């Protein structure tokens, strides 16, 4: 994505339409001029990324997205490229009709796409089929075209949004174009950064089409992309007591690894002290593997309470289980009023016994856990991740991290951040346990819940990307610990 001043501000489709309206009606930029600028931006992107391309095919829908495609075809032909243009309909609407006529006036031919047609042999396919307004699955005939383009092995440039992707939510209700590159116009659409978007957007750039800063005045973004960040340098007279004491609670029989990962991540993120409350049987292994963790065997609330008294922040849930022992520790921890991070079985217990938090709290559900907390289904969560994250934050009065591709961080006041980092290699056991420890350590070092969740998600995902440089398959949670330490200190790992 380019470094345009609004490139980290994400907008809903309704907001983008309002920006379009303001550009036309208040700034006096005609709609056709915006279309022409979009076409120039698209051609510039195409020439930068495929400088050897000599022949392209442009697939145009009926609306303004198709109009962008027709004008791109005009400009590409003027630049010396061979251009094939396919349309879905006999006629276009509004400014797109003017753009279509401009292509014809330049001597170009428009072929109506038929499902029996074969794709031309070209260097780049240009997707201008659907714009930001599509919320349903593409029609059958268009779906067949999309699937043919995807199967062609030829790179695809998508204009504004890959056709078939919901630009508001990041879902794909049917088939969708898999672009190698997407050039988006005027404002960054939030749905291009979460959910299924990672499968179809490819590399993404934003072009504001030369519009002035005044266009965005009084239009607050719906969400923001995280920027790289780290903790400030420590004071020279810092000691372990000034860097917080995290108590990690979990590790039912056979799940010592989860609580160890959480505790070790808290240490690597800079917590001064980390205690672990777990089953007694795990103490020998924990002490041998990571002696810096102060591991304690607890058999119930009475043995947990002295540990709670010494801790500043709690990390509750990794490997906790949902039995009697687990529930007793969970309830005691939550009733302590200490700031906390709740994950895994800590969330499953919360789904059974909901409560609104009065202390600083961060919940870190994956979509399955989110569905249980909301009393719905995973499909409903994934249909609108933004709405689900905000609903959870409001329901529990906690900061919520909805994990997944394009993790979301939601505040009860409505603020929402989106994580642009992370990779499929992180879809492995133990990654969530690390995140719990990271966020807890940031809380212990003085961040509030919103800061800790936002910074923690970013550090976790960036560490995962560093660790995946040797390949995504086979990535282990512990592979993130070395780059995590570097990134926390502002060192490029």
What's the SSE blueprint?
Elements (H helix, E strand, L loop, with lengths): L8 E3 L1 H13 L5 H19 L5 E6 L3 H15 L3 E6 L7 H11 L4 E3 L11 E5 L11 H12 L4 E4 L21 E5 L2 E2 L7 H4 L2 E5 L15 E3 L19 E5 L6 H13 L4 E6 L4 H7 L4 E4 L3 H10 L2 E4 L7 H12 L4 E3 L2 H8 L8 E3 L3 H8 L3 H6 L1 H12 L2 E4 L5 E3 L5 E3 L12 H14 L4 H19 L13 H8 L5
Parallel strand pairs: 1-8, 2-3, 2-5, 3-4, 5-6, 6-7, 7-9, 10-19, 11-12, 11-14, 12-13, 14-15, 15-16, 16-17
Antiparallel strand pairs: 1-10, 17-18, 18-19
Helix pairs in contact: 2-3, 3-4, 7-15, 9-10, 11-12, 15-16, 16-17
Report the top-level CATH class of the largest domain: Alpha Beta
Widest beta sheet: strand line-up: 8-1-10-19-18-17-16-15-14-11-12-13
| Approximate shape | elongated
**Low-pLDDT sequence parts:** none
Strand content: 15-25%
Tell me the CATH superfamily of the largest domain.
Ribokinase
Quickly give the CATH architecture of the largest domain.
Answer: 3-Layer(aba) Sandwich
Instruction: Write down how many β-strands occur, each being a DSSP E stretch of 2 or more residues.
Output: 19
Number of helices: 17
CATH domain topology of the largest domain: UDP-N-acetylmuramoyl-L-alanine:D-glutamate ligase
Please state the CA-atom Rg, rounded to the nearest Å: 26 Å
The first-to-last residue Cα distance is 21 Å
What is the structural class?
A: alpha/beta
Helical content class: 25-40%
Query: What average pLDDT do the residues reach?
Result: 95
Number of structurally distinct domains: 2
Largest sheet: 12 strands, mixed
């Amino acid at each position: 994505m380019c470094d345009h001043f609004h490139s980290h501000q994400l907008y809903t489709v309704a907001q983008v339409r309002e920006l379009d309206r303001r550009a036309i009606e208040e700034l006096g930029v005609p709609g056709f001029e915006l279309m022409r600028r979009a076409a120039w931006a698209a051609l510039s992107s195409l020439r930068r990324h495929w400088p050897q391309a000599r022949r392209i095919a442009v697939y145009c829908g009926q609306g303004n997205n198709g109009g962008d495609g027709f004008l791109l075809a005009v400009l590409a032909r003027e630049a010396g490229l061979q251009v094939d243009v396919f349309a879905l309909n006999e006629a276009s609407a509004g400014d797109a009709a003017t753009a279509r006529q401009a292509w014809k006036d330049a001597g170009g031919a428009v072929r109506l796409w038929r499902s029996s047609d074969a794709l031309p042999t070209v260097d780049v396919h240009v997707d201008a089929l659907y714009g930001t307004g599509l919320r349903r699955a593409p029609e059958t005939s268009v779906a067949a075209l999309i699937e043919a383009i995807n199967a062609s092995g030829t790179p695809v440039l998508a204009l504004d949004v890959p056709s078939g992707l919901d630009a508001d939510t990041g879902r794909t209700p049917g088939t969708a174009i898999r672009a190698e590159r997407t050039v988006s116009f005027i404002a960054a659409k939030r749905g291009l950064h979460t959910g299924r978007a990672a499968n179809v957007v490819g590399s993404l750039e934003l072009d504001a089409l030369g519009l002035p800063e005044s266009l965005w005045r009084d239009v607050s973004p719906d969400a923001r992309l995280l920027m790289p960040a780290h903790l400030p340098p420590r004071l020279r007279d810092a000691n372990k007591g000034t860097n917080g004491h995290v108590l990690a609670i979990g590790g039912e029989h056979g799940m010592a690894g989860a609580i160890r990962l959480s505790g070790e991540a808290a240490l690597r993120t800079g917590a001064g002290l980390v205690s672990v409350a777990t089953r007694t049987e795990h103490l020998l292994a924990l002490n041998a593997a990571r002696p810096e963790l102060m591991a304690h065997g607890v058999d119930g609330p009475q043995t947990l309470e002295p540990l709670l008294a010494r801790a500043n922040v709690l990390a509750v849930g990794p490997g906790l289980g949902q039995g009697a022992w687990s529930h007793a520790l969970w309830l005691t921890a939550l009733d302590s009023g200490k700031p906390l991070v709740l994950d895994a079985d800590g969330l499953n217990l919360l789904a059974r016994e909901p409560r609104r938090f009065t202390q600083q709290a961060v919940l870190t559900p994956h979509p399955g856990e989110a569905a249980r907390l909301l009393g719905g289904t995973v499909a409903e969560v994934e249909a609108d991740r933004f709405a689900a994250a905000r609903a959870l934050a409001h329901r529990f009065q906690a900061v919520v991290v909805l994990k997944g591709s394009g993790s979301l961080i939601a505040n009860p006041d409505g603020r929402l951040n989106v994580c642009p980092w992370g990779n499929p290699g992180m879809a492995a056991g133990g990654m969530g346990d690390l995140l719990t420890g990271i966020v807890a350590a940031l809380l212990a070092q003085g961040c509030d819940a919103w800061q800790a969740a936002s910074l923690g998600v970013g550090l976790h995902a960036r560490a995962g990307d560093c660790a995946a440089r040797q390949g995504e398959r086979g990535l282990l949670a512990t592979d993130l610990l070395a780059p995590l330490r570097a990134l926390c200190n502002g060192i490029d790992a």
